[in-house]
Amino acid sequence: MYSSLLKLMLFTSLGAFCCFAVAEETHADDTPSPLARLNEHLYDRETFERKVRALDKLYTTIAHMKMEEARSLKERGDAEGVRIALGEAGRHLAEVKEAYVLGLAHFGESALLHTFYGELLHDHLGQEHEAVKHWEEAVRLDKAYGRAQNNLGMYYLHVGRYDEGLVCMDAALAAEPGNPDWWFNMVQVYLTNFTQIMKIRGWDRAKVYEEAMRMSERALALSPSDYQLLYDHALNHFLADRFGVPPDWERAARAWQEAVKRAHNDSQRFECTLNEARVHLRAGNSGPARVCLEQARALAPDSPVVRQLLNELKD
């Protein structure tokens, strides 16, 4: 029920979200609260986990919409409207928190509940240290749960605990090698923290880059139509020089050509086309560069960057 309602909510206007919230409060005396309905599923852990995850997705979506509404109201100077919208967002997040607390009181051995409760605390409630405790408990309960390992690993890396972070990230990939998100995250780790990776792995800079690109290709193989993965993979070709690796501009051009096919709008198509032009320019191929720049100009006629690059080609 919740998952179907979530799909409906995602394609509904902000006004409909407000109506939903008001209707929910109006009928509070006539229908069971979400927590009361969850109580009905405490007989079975898997059922409860599924229900609480659906509630989490729905209510955090509503909360995000309310926060967006609050931002819009703030721009219009409606302080009272901001207060009301933020209050509604807070109430929805509080109910999600109560749902996880209820679940963990009965199913404290659930790595899934610990993991997603940690995400709620970290991403929405600003309780970072509490979140980490739940991720650590999730890993203790189930070392093969990739999501918990990934979350904990990314946190450790963020705070400078690189050795521990890599252990967790490696465990996430070993547990769930078919998850493109874990490969994508590891690529970012390698390219951002390459000095630490070199020390821990015993690699040189070129090896770090080559492994990062290999993992990027692995992520793409798992999710070949994902624009963000395609864009990131293409963009990483520009980093080759920094790592002492000769750039493969031919492969880079193909990467941007694949990315533009999956672009969702003209802004993304413009960015991909412009970057392909830059690739051709760096490779010394003025003809293909000019073609790409003309295509980019058609998408964004007033772009000063395109105008400048075309003028440089004329010179």
Protein described:
The structure is a single chain. By secondary structure, the protein is an all-alpha fold. The chain has 17 helices and no strands. The radius of gyration is 24 Å and the shape is globular.
Silhouette: globular
Largest sheet: none
Structure annotation, total helices? 17
What pattern of helices and strands is seen along the backbone? HHHHHHHHHHHHHHHHH
The structure class reads: mainly alpha
Helix content: over 70%
Low-confidence stretches: 1-28
Question: What is the mean predicted local confidence, pLDDT?
Answer: 90
**How much of the polypeptide forms β-strand, as a percent range?**
under 5%
Count of distinct strands: 0
Q: How would you name the oligomeric state of the polypeptide chains in this document?
A: single chain
Radius of gyration: 24 Å
CA(first)-CA(last) distance: 64 Å
Write out key terms for the chains shown.
disordered N terminus, 78% helix, 17 helices, mainly alpha, 315 residues
